[in-house]
Input
Amino acid sequence: MNDYKERILLLEEENIHIKNQLKDTNDALNRLCGAMKDILTQLEQNIRRTEMLTLGYDRLNLIVRNMRYEWSDLRKCKQSFFYPRFRSDEETLRMITQEGKSLARFGDGEFAIAFRIARQKFQRPDERLAERIRQVLNSNHPDLLIAIADHYGSLDEYNEQTVAGIRHYMTEEIRKQHRQIIPPDRIYSDTYITRPYVIYRDAFTENPGRRFEALKKIWKGKRIIIVEGAQTRLGVGNDLFRESAQLRRIIAPPTNSFDRYDEILRECLKRSGEADLFILAIGPSSGVLAHDLTVEGIQAVDVGHIDLEYEWFLAGKGVRVPVPGKYNNEVAGGALVEPLYDPEYEASVVASYV
Output
Protein backbone atom coordinates (compact mmCIF):
# COMPACT_ATOMS: atom_id res chain seq x y z
CA MET A 1 0.00 0.00 0.00
CA ASN A 2 2.81 2.41 0.89
CA ASP A 3 4.51 1.67 -2.48
CA TYR A 4 1.26 2.41 -4.26
CA LYS A 5 0.86 5.78 -2.48
CA GLU A 6 4.48 6.71 -3.26
CA ARG A 7 3.93 5.94 -6.98
CA ILE A 8 0.80 8.08 -6.99
CA LEU A 9 2.72 10.98 -5.42
CA LEU A 10 5.50 10.59 -7.99
CA LEU A 11 2.98 10.58 -10.84
CA GLU A 12 1.27 13.71 -9.48
CA GLU A 13 4.66 15.47 -9.22
CA GLU A 14 5.48 14.44 -12.81
CA ASN A 15 2.05 15.65 -13.94
CA ILE A 16 2.63 19.03 -12.26
CA HIS A 17 6.09 19.21 -13.91
CA ILE A 18 4.61 18.40 -17.32
CA LYS A 19 1.85 21.02 -16.85
CA ASN A 20 4.51 23.62 -15.97
CA GLN A 21 6.51 22.66 -19.05
CA LEU A 22 3.40 22.91 -21.22
CA LYS A 23 2.62 26.32 -19.72
CA ASP A 24 6.19 27.52 -20.38
CA THR A 25 5.99 26.18 -23.93
CA ASN A 26 2.62 27.85 -24.51
CA ASP A 27 3.95 31.14 -23.11
CA ALA A 28 6.97 30.87 -25.40
CA LEU A 29 4.74 30.17 -28.41
CA ASN A 30 2.56 33.18 -27.54
CA ARG A 31 5.63 35.37 -27.31
CA LEU A 32 6.89 33.99 -30.63
CA CYS A 33 3.51 34.63 -32.29
CA GLY A 34 3.49 38.16 -30.91
CA ALA A 35 7.00 38.75 -32.22
CA MET A 36 6.04 37.34 -35.65
CA LYS A 37 2.95 39.58 -35.73
CA ASP A 38 5.15 42.59 -34.96
CA ILE A 39 7.57 41.56 -37.72
CA LEU A 40 4.75 41.14 -40.25
CA THR A 41 3.25 44.49 -39.27
CA GLN A 42 6.64 46.16 -39.70
CA LEU A 43 7.12 44.38 -43.03
CA GLU A 44 3.73 45.58 -44.28
CA GLN A 45 4.57 49.13 -43.21
CA ASN A 46 7.92 48.91 -45.01
CA ILE A 47 6.21 47.62 -48.16
CA ARG A 48 3.74 50.52 -48.07
CA ARG A 49 6.59 52.98 -47.50
CA THR A 50 8.47 51.44 -50.44
CA GLU A 51 5.39 51.71 -52.68
CA MET A 52 4.88 55.32 -51.63
CA LEU A 53 8.54 56.12 -52.21
CA THR A 54 8.37 54.47 -55.64
CA LEU A 55 5.27 56.45 -56.59
CA GLY A 56 6.84 59.58 -55.18
CA TYR A 57 10.04 58.95 -57.13
CA ASP A 58 8.15 58.42 -60.39
CA ARG A 59 6.20 61.63 -59.89
CA LEU A 60 9.31 63.54 -58.82
CA ASN A 61 11.12 62.24 -61.88
CA LEU A 62 8.38 63.64 -64.14
CA ILE A 63 8.52 66.98 -62.35
CA VAL A 64 12.32 67.24 -62.50
CA ARG A 65 12.42 66.14 -66.14
CA ASN A 66 10.02 68.89 -67.21
CA MET A 67 10.88 71.56 -64.62
CA ARG A 68 13.81 73.06 -66.52
CA TYR A 69 11.44 73.87 -69.38
CA GLU A 70 8.81 75.33 -67.03
CA TRP A 71 11.29 77.40 -65.04
CA SER A 72 13.26 78.53 -68.06
CA ASP A 73 10.30 79.73 -70.16
CA LEU A 74 11.70 82.24 -72.66
CA ARG A 75 8.71 84.45 -71.90
CA LYS A 76 10.13 84.81 -68.38
CA CYS A 77 13.89 84.57 -68.81
CA LYS A 78 16.62 84.02 -71.41
CA GLN A 79 17.57 80.36 -72.00
CA SER A 80 18.57 78.17 -74.92
CA PHE A 81 15.59 75.79 -74.80
CA PHE A 82 13.09 75.39 -77.63
CA TYR A 83 9.94 77.46 -77.11
CA PRO A 84 7.50 78.14 -79.94
CA ARG A 85 6.02 81.65 -79.88
CA PHE A 86 2.29 82.00 -79.23
CA ARG A 87 -0.20 84.79 -79.85
CA SER A 88 -2.87 85.33 -77.22
CA ASP A 89 -6.30 83.71 -77.52
CA GLU A 90 -7.77 87.19 -77.77
CA GLU A 91 -5.61 87.95 -80.82
CA THR A 92 -6.51 84.61 -82.40
CA LEU A 93 -10.23 85.32 -81.97
CA ARG A 94 -9.82 88.83 -83.35
CA MET A 95 -8.08 87.49 -86.45
CA ILE A 96 -10.83 84.88 -86.98
CA THR A 97 -13.81 87.16 -86.41
CA GLN A 98 -12.50 90.40 -87.91
CA GLU A 99 -9.99 89.27 -90.56
CA GLY A 100 -11.70 86.05 -91.66
CA LYS A 101 -8.76 83.80 -90.83
CA SER A 102 -9.12 80.02 -90.67
CA LEU A 103 -7.79 77.84 -87.85
CA ALA A 104 -6.06 74.43 -88.07
CA ARG A 105 -5.33 72.77 -84.72
CA PHE A 106 -2.69 70.12 -83.98
CA GLY A 107 -2.26 68.19 -80.73
CA ASP A 108 -0.43 65.10 -79.49
CA GLY A 109 -2.58 62.82 -81.66
CA GLU A 110 -1.72 64.66 -84.86
CA PHE A 111 1.99 64.73 -83.98
CA ALA A 112 1.87 60.97 -83.33
CA ILE A 113 0.33 60.39 -86.77
CA ALA A 114 2.96 62.61 -88.35
CA PHE A 115 5.64 60.32 -86.89
CA ARG A 116 3.75 57.11 -87.77
CA ILE A 117 3.01 56.28 -84.12
CA ALA A 118 -0.27 54.49 -83.37
CA ARG A 119 -1.90 56.37 -80.47
CA GLN A 120 -5.47 57.30 -81.33
CA LYS A 121 -8.38 54.92 -81.34
CA PHE A 122 -10.41 57.03 -83.78
CA GLN A 123 -7.84 57.36 -86.58
CA ARG A 124 -5.59 54.55 -87.75
CA PRO A 125 -2.06 55.44 -88.94
CA ASP A 126 -2.17 56.65 -92.52
CA GLU A 127 0.89 57.49 -94.57
CA ARG A 128 -0.91 60.09 -96.68
CA LEU A 129 -2.44 61.75 -93.61
CA ALA A 130 1.00 61.85 -91.96
CA GLU A 131 2.43 63.68 -94.96
CA ARG A 132 -0.53 66.07 -95.11
CA ILE A 133 -0.19 66.96 -91.41
CA ARG A 134 3.49 67.76 -91.93
CA GLN A 135 2.60 69.83 -94.99
CA VAL A 136 -0.03 71.88 -93.19
CA LEU A 137 2.24 72.47 -90.16
CA ASN A 138 4.68 74.07 -92.58
CA SER A 139 2.07 76.00 -94.56
CA ASN A 140 2.57 79.74 -94.93
CA HIS A 141 -0.88 80.55 -96.28
CA PRO A 142 -1.68 84.09 -95.06
CA ASP A 143 -5.30 83.26 -94.15
CA LEU A 144 -4.56 80.12 -92.10
CA LEU A 145 -3.66 80.21 -88.41
CA ILE A 146 -1.71 77.16 -87.22
CA ALA A 147 -2.41 76.10 -83.62
CA ILE A 148 -0.35 73.78 -81.44
CA ALA A 149 -0.66 73.11 -77.70
CA ASP A 150 1.08 75.70 -75.49
CA HIS A 151 2.78 73.36 -73.04
CA TYR A 152 6.47 73.78 -73.83
CA GLY A 153 7.26 75.98 -70.83
CA SER A 154 5.29 77.28 -67.87
CA LEU A 155 2.28 75.17 -66.85
CA ASP A 156 0.95 77.57 -64.21
CA GLU A 157 -2.52 77.93 -65.73
CA TYR A 158 -3.36 74.22 -65.91
CA ASN A 159 -4.84 72.06 -63.15
CA GLU A 160 -2.87 69.30 -61.43
CA GLN A 161 -4.20 66.44 -63.55
CA THR A 162 -3.41 68.28 -66.78
CA VAL A 163 0.07 69.23 -65.57
CA ALA A 164 0.83 65.59 -64.72
CA GLY A 165 -0.34 64.49 -68.18
CA ILE A 166 1.76 67.12 -69.96
CA ARG A 167 4.86 66.22 -67.94
CA HIS A 168 4.37 62.55 -68.76
CA TYR A 169 3.98 63.32 -72.47
CA MET A 170 6.69 65.94 -72.97
CA THR A 171 9.74 63.69 -72.97
CA GLU A 172 13.03 64.68 -74.57
CA GLU A 173 12.15 62.44 -77.52
CA ILE A 174 8.79 64.20 -78.03
CA ARG A 175 10.42 67.64 -77.83
CA LYS A 176 12.99 66.49 -80.38
CA GLN A 177 10.20 65.30 -82.72
CA HIS A 178 8.37 68.61 -82.45
CA ARG A 179 11.52 70.56 -83.29
CA GLN A 180 11.84 68.53 -86.48
CA ILE A 181 8.49 69.63 -87.94
CA ILE A 182 7.64 72.95 -86.23
CA PRO A 183 9.01 76.02 -88.03
CA PRO A 184 10.79 78.03 -85.30
CA ASP A 185 10.02 81.45 -86.78
CA ARG A 186 6.20 81.11 -86.80
CA ILE A 187 3.81 82.64 -84.28
CA TYR A 188 1.26 80.01 -83.28
CA SER A 189 -2.24 80.05 -81.89
CA ASP A 190 -2.98 77.76 -78.96
CA THR A 191 -4.74 74.47 -79.75
CA TYR A 192 -6.39 74.69 -76.31
CA ILE A 193 -8.35 77.77 -77.37
CA THR A 194 -11.32 75.46 -78.05
CA ARG A 195 -10.78 73.56 -74.79
CA PRO A 196 -11.52 76.42 -72.39
CA TYR A 197 -12.76 74.56 -69.34
CA VAL A 198 -11.70 71.19 -67.99
CA ILE A 199 -7.88 71.54 -68.15
CA TYR A 200 -7.60 74.86 -66.30
CA ARG A 201 -7.12 75.77 -62.65
CA ASP A 202 -9.84 78.43 -62.89
CA ALA A 203 -12.60 75.96 -63.84
CA PHE A 204 -14.78 77.10 -60.94
CA THR A 205 -14.49 80.81 -61.67
CA GLU A 206 -16.34 82.96 -64.20
CA ASN A 207 -13.44 82.75 -66.66
CA PRO A 208 -14.52 79.61 -68.58
CA GLY A 209 -17.93 81.16 -69.22
CA ARG A 210 -16.27 84.27 -70.60
CA ARG A 211 -14.06 82.15 -72.85
CA PHE A 212 -17.06 80.27 -74.26
CA GLU A 213 -18.91 83.51 -74.92
CA ALA A 214 -15.89 84.81 -76.81
CA LEU A 215 -15.78 81.64 -78.93
CA LYS A 216 -19.49 81.92 -79.79
CA LYS A 217 -18.74 85.20 -81.55
CA ILE A 218 -16.95 83.22 -84.29
CA TRP A 219 -20.24 81.94 -85.73
CA LYS A 220 -22.70 84.51 -84.39
CA GLY A 221 -25.03 85.66 -87.17
CA LYS A 222 -23.34 83.43 -89.76
CA ARG A 223 -24.51 80.61 -91.97
CA ILE A 224 -22.41 77.66 -90.88
CA ILE A 225 -21.85 74.13 -92.09
CA ILE A 226 -20.57 71.78 -89.42
CA VAL A 227 -18.40 68.92 -90.67
CA GLU A 228 -18.44 66.38 -87.85
CA GLY A 229 -18.10 62.70 -87.11
CA ALA A 230 -21.24 60.61 -86.77
CA GLN A 231 -22.58 60.74 -83.19
CA THR A 232 -20.54 63.87 -82.43
CA ARG A 233 -23.70 66.02 -82.63
CA LEU A 234 -22.20 69.44 -82.01
CA GLY A 235 -24.67 71.79 -80.36
CA VAL A 236 -27.40 69.18 -79.92
CA GLY A 237 -29.05 69.63 -76.52
CA ASN A 238 -27.25 72.90 -75.75
CA ASP A 239 -27.09 76.50 -76.98
CA LEU A 240 -23.51 76.49 -78.28
CA PHE A 241 -24.51 77.40 -81.86
CA ARG A 242 -27.85 78.99 -81.13
CA GLU A 243 -26.80 82.42 -82.38
CA SER A 244 -25.68 81.20 -85.81
CA ALA A 245 -27.93 82.39 -88.65
CA GLN A 246 -28.23 78.93 -90.18
CA LEU A 247 -26.78 75.53 -89.31
CA ARG A 248 -26.26 72.57 -91.66
CA ARG A 249 -24.18 69.42 -91.26
CA ILE A 250 -21.96 67.12 -93.29
CA ILE A 251 -21.50 63.83 -91.44
CA ALA A 252 -18.21 61.92 -91.58
CA PRO A 253 -17.47 58.44 -90.19
CA PRO A 254 -17.09 58.38 -86.38
CA THR A 255 -13.58 56.91 -86.74
CA ASN A 256 -10.96 56.90 -89.49
CA SER A 257 -12.59 59.85 -91.22
CA PHE A 258 -9.56 60.33 -93.47
CA ASP A 259 -10.67 57.20 -95.36
CA ARG A 260 -13.48 59.35 -96.85
CA TYR A 261 -11.52 62.59 -96.92
CA ASP A 262 -11.62 63.26 -100.66
CA GLU A 263 -15.40 62.83 -100.77
CA ILE A 264 -15.88 65.07 -97.75
CA LEU A 265 -13.67 67.76 -99.27
CA ARG A 266 -15.60 67.67 -102.55
CA GLU A 267 -18.89 67.98 -100.66
CA CYS A 268 -17.59 71.01 -98.77
CA LEU A 269 -16.43 72.68 -101.95
CA LYS A 270 -19.76 71.96 -103.63
CA ARG A 271 -21.63 73.62 -100.77
CA SER A 272 -19.23 76.49 -100.14
CA GLY A 273 -21.70 79.03 -101.53
CA GLU A 274 -24.25 77.99 -98.92
CA ALA A 275 -22.11 78.93 -95.92
CA ASP A 276 -20.15 81.84 -94.50
CA LEU A 277 -18.06 79.53 -92.34
CA PHE A 278 -17.22 75.84 -91.96
CA ILE A 279 -16.90 74.38 -88.44
CA LEU A 280 -14.73 71.27 -88.41
CA ALA A 281 -14.71 68.38 -85.93
CA ILE A 282 -13.53 65.20 -87.68
CA GLY A 283 -10.47 64.34 -85.61
CA PRO A 284 -6.96 64.57 -87.11
CA SER A 285 -8.41 65.25 -90.56
CA SER A 286 -9.78 68.62 -89.39
CA GLY A 287 -6.53 70.55 -89.64
CA VAL A 288 -5.89 69.25 -93.14
CA LEU A 289 -9.46 70.12 -94.21
CA ALA A 290 -9.12 73.62 -92.74
CA HIS A 291 -6.02 74.12 -94.87
CA ASP A 292 -7.56 72.79 -98.07
CA LEU A 293 -10.70 74.90 -97.71
CA THR A 294 -8.64 78.00 -96.93
CA VAL A 295 -6.61 77.48 -100.12
CA GLU A 296 -9.95 77.62 -101.98
CA GLY A 297 -10.85 80.93 -100.32
CA ILE A 298 -13.23 79.40 -97.74
CA GLN A 299 -13.03 80.21 -94.04
CA ALA A 300 -12.89 77.10 -91.83
CA VAL A 301 -12.34 76.74 -88.10
CA ASP A 302 -11.21 73.48 -86.51
CA VAL A 303 -13.03 73.32 -83.13
CA GLY A 304 -12.18 69.76 -82.02
CA HIS A 305 -13.86 68.78 -78.73
CA ILE A 306 -15.49 72.15 -78.12
CA ASP A 307 -18.98 70.67 -77.72
CA LEU A 308 -17.85 68.14 -75.09
CA GLU A 309 -16.01 70.92 -73.28
CA TYR A 310 -19.21 72.96 -73.29
CA GLU A 311 -21.23 70.00 -71.98
CA TRP A 312 -18.68 69.51 -69.17
CA PHE A 313 -18.84 73.22 -68.42
CA LEU A 314 -22.63 73.07 -68.19
CA ALA A 315 -22.35 70.04 -65.87
CA GLY A 316 -20.20 72.22 -63.61
CA LYS A 317 -18.12 69.47 -61.99
CA GLY A 318 -14.72 70.58 -63.27
CA VAL A 319 -14.00 67.11 -64.73
CA ARG A 320 -14.83 65.02 -67.79
CA VAL A 321 -18.18 63.29 -67.44
CA PRO A 322 -20.23 61.05 -69.76
CA VAL A 323 -22.45 62.96 -72.18
CA PRO A 324 -25.51 60.91 -73.22
CA GLY A 325 -26.08 60.69 -76.96
CA LYS A 326 -22.62 61.94 -77.97
CA TYR A 327 -19.40 60.19 -78.95
CA ASN A 328 -16.91 60.82 -76.16
CA ASN A 329 -13.46 59.27 -76.51
CA GLU A 330 -12.23 60.85 -73.28
CA VAL A 331 -14.29 58.84 -70.78
CA ALA A 332 -14.62 55.09 -70.29
CA GLY A 333 -17.39 53.69 -72.46
CA GLY A 334 -17.81 56.97 -74.32
CA ALA A 335 -17.48 55.27 -77.71
CA LEU A 336 -20.70 53.35 -77.07
CA VAL A 337 -23.38 55.88 -78.00
CA GLU A 338 -27.04 55.14 -77.56
CA PRO A 339 -29.38 55.91 -80.49
CA LEU A 340 -30.80 59.43 -80.47
CA TYR A 341 -33.50 60.80 -82.73
CA ASP A 342 -33.67 64.56 -82.82
CA PRO A 343 -35.81 65.96 -85.66
CA GLU A 344 -33.94 69.26 -85.74
CA TYR A 345 -30.60 67.47 -85.94
CA GLU A 346 -31.81 65.11 -88.67
CA ALA A 347 -33.15 68.03 -90.69
CA SER A 348 -29.78 69.81 -90.51
CA VAL A 349 -27.86 66.96 -92.19
CA VAL A 350 -27.26 67.74 -95.88
CA ALA A 351 -24.77 64.94 -96.61
CA SER A 352 -23.50 61.80 -94.88
CA TYR A 353 -20.45 59.62 -95.55
CA VAL A 354 -20.96 57.05 -92.80
